Amino acid sequence: MRSRESPPGGRKGVWMFTAFLIKYAEIGVKGRNRYIFEDALVQQIKYAVRRCEGEFKVTRTQGRIYVEAVSGFDFDEIVDNLKTVFGISGICPVVYVRDEGFEKLGEEIIRYVGEVYPETDKSFKVNARRARKNYPLTSMEINSGIGSILLDAYPAMKVDVHKPDILLNIEIREKIYIYSETIPGPGGMPVGTGGKAMLLLSGGIDSPVAGYMIAKRGVKIDAVYFHAPPYTSERAKQKVVDLARIISRYTGPVYLHVINFTDIQLYIYDKCPHEELTIIMRRYMMRIAERIAKETECLGLITGESIGQVASQTMHSLAATNEVCTMPVYRPLIGFDKMEIVDISEKINTYETSIQPFEDCCTIFVAKHPVTKPNLNIIRRHEENLQEKIEEMVDTAVRTAELIIVHQ
Ligand code: ATP
Ligand code: MG
């Protein structure tokens, strides 16, 4: 029932820990919402720990969530996976002690402090909490009793009740729980508490980051990818599947709809002025994405657009693209510089995949001098050139979409 000794992370005393107390921000999750929030969090934690070696029990008692190991496990692996669960603000490794009297508890705590803090010149505060009220000592008595035991055992330590280096928590339950370290979690809200949205996922750097950011606020993510074979290769599509898989670590399984966009692109290429190709193509992407979003009960679209990044993302172009949608379009990167987006993509591990050199369907059909200030009336007029076949082509594209369920 112990984690492996000497894990690569080098955290001291990890072999002692057999459970984790999960901390989450409680602001705004009062009353009924709190249960929805906690249920979703437990669900996502279960999904994350299932990927780890070993067996775990996820339990919820008295407003606390614990992940308990019921077999051997790898400390770093479980922590890395818990760090992908939105809604977790902190992960506290816990040591359990059987209640065998106060003297025994004192011995266990001396051992705990010696293992986890080998340099014992730190200041500390004991913070006892009795969830089981029949314990023979009050919280105050435990605090002062354990305090003096520690001062006797480690004379270089001192008590600091205001800003201690070590806040030693002791929770009296059936067993006694000891913890003092908090590893930061990703924050945010558990996926599933905020409805569902459709991410327009290309093979680039931006859109996976955009999906990650909206998922962080608790939104479940489906995705749509516009594929244009043979202009875009199977390898380009595989790259998008790979990106969906990386973000599914955070978002849970992603339903990826792959749309064959070739005929529509060729038709636009044939019928519309080339400098307007990108804008008109993007308007069709949004229309199709919105249709699939409605059919799958999504409440909005998500793109990786950022003002001014390319010609199709000027304020004028964004207005033209946006005009065809009735659903809200969420653009979480709208005010970000490329470098800021790259930083996040490195942090979430999508960057290396995003920069693989496979063509995307937009780059093949781009004009040398695309319009940067499209005039909506002119764009609408040119879209009339498509009247004869476009409705049917959009229907076909939606009907023949390939669904790939991507998960870890
Ligand atoms: P990214 O790095 O995400 O590819 P980008 O900077 O290349 O973005 P554009 O190609 O103009 O920008 O695309 C803007 C947004 O439109 C993307 O972030 C993405 O949400 C969506 N998008 C572009 N191409 C596709 C595609 N082939 N399939 C699905 N969505 C796409
Ligand atoms: Mg792109």
Short descriptors:
VC0802-like; 14 helices; 39% helix; Rossmann fold; binds adenosine-5'-triphosphate; single chain; 408 residues; nine-stranded mixed β-sheet; disordered N terminus; binds magnesium ion; alpha/beta
3D structure, described in words:
- By secondary structure, the protein is α/β, with parallel strands linked by helices.
- The chain has two domains: 14-184, VC0802-like (2-Layer Sandwich), CATH 3.30.2130; 196-406, Rossmann fold (3-Layer(aba) Sandwich).
- 39% of the residues lie in helices and 19% in strands.
- The chain is built from 14 helices and 15 strands.
- The chain has helices at residues 31-49, 75-82, 102-116, 139-153, 206-215, 234-251, 262-271, 277-295, 315-322, 338-347, 351-354, 361-364, 376-383, 390-399, and strands at 19-23, 56-61, 64-69, 90-97, 123-130, 158-159, 166-172, 176-179, 183-184, 196-200, 220-227, 254-260, 301-302, 329-330, 402-406.
- The strands form two sheets. Strands 1, 2, 3, 4, 5, 6, 7, 8 and 9 form a nine-stranded mixed sheet that branches. A six-stranded mixed sheet has the order 14-13-10-11-12-15, sandwiched between helices.
- Helix 7 (262-271) packs antiparallel against helix 8.
- It is elongated and about 85 Å long.
- The protein starts with 18 loop residues before the first strand and ends with a strand.
- 39% of the residues are buried.
- Mean pLDDT is 92; it is low at 1-9.
- The structure holds adenosine-5'-triphosphate and magnesium ion.
- Magnesium ion is lined by residues 202, 204, 360, 362.
- Residues 202, 204, 360, 362 line the site of magnesium ion.
